[in-house]
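quick one: WQD bound model?
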Amino acid sequence: MKILVTGGLGFIGSHTVVELQNSGHDVIIIDNCSNSSTEVLDRITSITGKTPAFVKFDLREKVKVQEFFTHNNDIDGVIHFAASKAVGESVKDPLLYYENNIATLIYMLQELQKKEKASFIFSSSCTVYGQADELPITENAPVKPAESPYGNTKQIGEEIIRDTCRVQPQLKAIALRYFNPIGAHPTAEIGELPLGVPANLVPFITQTGIGMREELSVFGNDYPTADGTAIRDYIHVVDLAKSHVKALERLLTGANKENYEVFNVGTGTGSSVLQVIKSFEKISGKSLKYKIVDKREGDITAAYADTHKANNELGWKAQSTLDEAMASAWKWEQKIRDI
Ligand code: WQD
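yep, here:
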């Protein structure tokens, strides 16, 4: 099938392109390269032997979105990653996030609803749950008021898709609520390339391990958890990528039960910050320098997924352990720093 991947040169997008190609799909990528580079095309080719088609433009340009679908009327499915995703940045520049994450989604859906049929996978986030009342978190957990404009764009995005699918039965969609993606492709050809100082834990750990950062700041150790540090569900990015192929194929084969569905994508296991540090030290053999500082505003105590719905209905289950994911992140860090 011919699959459009928006943001396909990015961290999760590029890993998903690889898995789509491995599953026999033809891929075309749209990316504005604001947080990625066309070099990733060569990296993908080196992994799969196939170069995805690529078109560079910004999905905020509505006319270009319309022209793209006019010239590419044979697209069977879309996986929509293209969006801004930095929580802190979204607080400082909300309109950038509402325009880039919502307007682009609307333009995409306006084109898809013209097609006789369309399958659409939306990149959502566990952030929609806020601090869930019960753990592990199921898809029925209530969506809570967003803690950031970024999180709000995911909530609004899900509602826009839900409302559109309700009146456009030829449009089928799945929102995948990611937990915490980490790691890199085992070949170390593709991985996470955070611009500037990483906001996320694992890239900060590997950059500290490689000597790029002086030490890791652990944001709080007085949470009501076993070791006092916050808990998250860290999922290998390759496992996450594979869930997109499974979700897309559910729609392409008509196996979906509703024409809008939501799935949590995590491992089902929570790990604390200190446990993640220990994982790094175990796989790297290095001691990580860190200090305990104040909690980061907006952070929740704990989040990890109940993955039964994805396991049973998508036929997908995360395979990699935290150590395996961390080892892939460390191999990638060493590779890109030529160590
Ligand atoms: C993980 C844990 C921090 C950095 C965010 C987004 C979410 C998704 C993933 C896009 C927390 C602690 C972190 C550091 C630390 N992004 N930490 N020192 O905040 O769970 O989720 O990224 O979809 O939507 O909200 O991920 O990696 O930033 O933090 O102690 O230098 O590590 O407090 O407990 P988070 P994270």
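The first helix runs from residue 11 to 22.
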